[in-house]
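Re: [ENG-882] Designed sequences occasionally contain unexpected residues at chain ends

Forwarding the minimal case from QA. Structure tokens:
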């Protein structure tokens, strides 16, 4: 998956960098954490107890499939969390 080019009528937020599993990940202010991870090619960042991959599913905060740890706080829904400069994210499923 690649990031879609920006149409001229759309203004994106300021470019920032967050860290996911210790690696830098480019993002833009106004994006959700899940959106930034999907745009970078991450489709799954958790797994079930049976080993099935999980990432973004509902995208609206209902299913809890997108949980990550943000700045030391566990069980944060990536689909509802806006990115912020310097954000440190840990997932269960390392790239
Ligand atoms: S994708 Fe369903 S709660 Fe985040």
């Amino acid at each position: 998956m690649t990031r879609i080019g920006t149409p001229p009528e759309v203004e994106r937020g300021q470019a920032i960098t967050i860290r996911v599993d210790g690696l830098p990940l480019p993002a833009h202010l106004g994006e959700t954490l899940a959106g930034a991870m999907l745009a970078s090619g991450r489709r799954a960042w958790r797994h079930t107890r049976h080993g099935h991959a999980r990432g973004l599913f509902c995208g609206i905060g209902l299913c809890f499939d997108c949980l990550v740890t943000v700045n030391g706080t566990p069980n944060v829904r990536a689909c509802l969390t806006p990115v912020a400069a310097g954000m440190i994210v840990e997932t269960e499923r390392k790239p």
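QA comment: On inspection the terminal residues look reasonable. Helices lie at 33-39. Proposing we downgrade this to a documentation issue.
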